[in-house]
């Protein structure tokens, strides 16, 4: 998996949220949480697994809504940040964090109602294997996002420290077919790249987001989207 050592560094974990979700990055955080909540629906008493949970942005949010949730990540420092978040949110007793490999999930077949992963598949060197493992431990729903091949991200992806695996719609369709998943819904978003939003004040980013939304309403808008959210079922 791309960036495995980088994500496990203490300083990366400590600065991760601040670098990505401050300034205009707040809009990204809000939209990603909205996408997860829209796809998963009511989660009270559902057994949920988050793959690559990182600092626990989604894990804690779903625990607050009554989910029986496990957050799994390969990075100990990231998980420590997640535990601190859960403690601050008052849900430390309502969730579990585990260190583990997404390619070899330590759970039996059909163990969870929902398995989801955000900001993971752009790092996956063998995405079909990871998705198959997610399917193995789910008895119903799979949700994940991808960075898209024909988007603004492709213009600067080469310059990123680790780069990203970019996906076309056809590649995602092939992944779903290979793992026996049926696509329920898909949303395509963010014409302008994440990196731009993170570098500008939230007030300015809100204006940029307004322009972004306008472009996406055009007939070709979805084709320019840099991110897609995929909601599928077994």
Automatic annotation (TrEMBL):
What lineage is this protein's organism placed in?
Archaea, Methanobacteriati, Methanobacteriota, Stenosarchaea group, Halobacteria
| Top-level division of the source organism's lineage | Archaea
Q: Which SUPFAM superfamilies match?
A: S-adenosyl-L-methionine-dependent methyltransferases
Domain Methyltransferase type, chain residue ranges per copy = 49-137
GO BP terms: namely: methylation
Which UniProt keywords are listed? Answer: Methyltransferase, Transferase
Q: Does the keyword Nucleotide-binding apply?
A: no
Task: Please give the Gene Ontology molecular function terms for this protein.
Answer: S-adenosylmethionine-dependent methyltransferase activity
Keyword set includes Magnesium: no
Q: Give the Gene3D superfamilies listed for this entry.
A: Vaccinia Virus protein VP39
The entry's protein name is Methyltransferase domain-containing protein
Extract the InterPro entries matched here.
Methyltransf_11, SAM-dependent_MTases_sf
């Amino acid at each position: 998996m791309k960036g495995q050592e980088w994500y496990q560094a203490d300083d990366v974990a400590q600065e991760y949220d601040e670098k990505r979700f401050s300034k205009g990055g707040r809009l990204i955080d809000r939209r990603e949480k909205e996408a997860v909540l829209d796809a998963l629906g009511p989660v009270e008493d559902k057994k949920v697994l988050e793959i690559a949970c990182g600092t626990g942005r989604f894990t804690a949010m779903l625990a607050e809504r009554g989910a029986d949730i496990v957050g799994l990540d390969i990075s100990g420092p990231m998980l420590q940040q997640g535990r601190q978040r859960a403690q601050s949110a008052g849900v430390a007793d309502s969730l579990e964090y585990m260190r583990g490999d997404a390619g070899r999930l330590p759970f039996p077949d059909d163990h969870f109602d929902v398995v989801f992963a955000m900001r993971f598949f752009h790092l996956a060197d063998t995405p079909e294997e990871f998705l198959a493992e997610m399917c193995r431990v789910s008895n119903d729903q799979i949700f994940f996002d991808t960075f898209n091949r024909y988007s603004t991200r492709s213009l600067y992806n080469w310059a990123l420290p680790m780069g990203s695996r970019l996906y076309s719609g056809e590649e995602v369709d092939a992944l779903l077919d290979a793992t026996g998943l049926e696509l329920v819904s898909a949303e395509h978003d963010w014409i302008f790249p994440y990196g731009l939003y993170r570098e500008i004040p939230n007030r300015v980013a809100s204006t940029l987001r307004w322009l972004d939304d306008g472009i996406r309403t055009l007939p070709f808008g979805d084709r320019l989207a840099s991110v897609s959210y995929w909601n599928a079922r077994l």
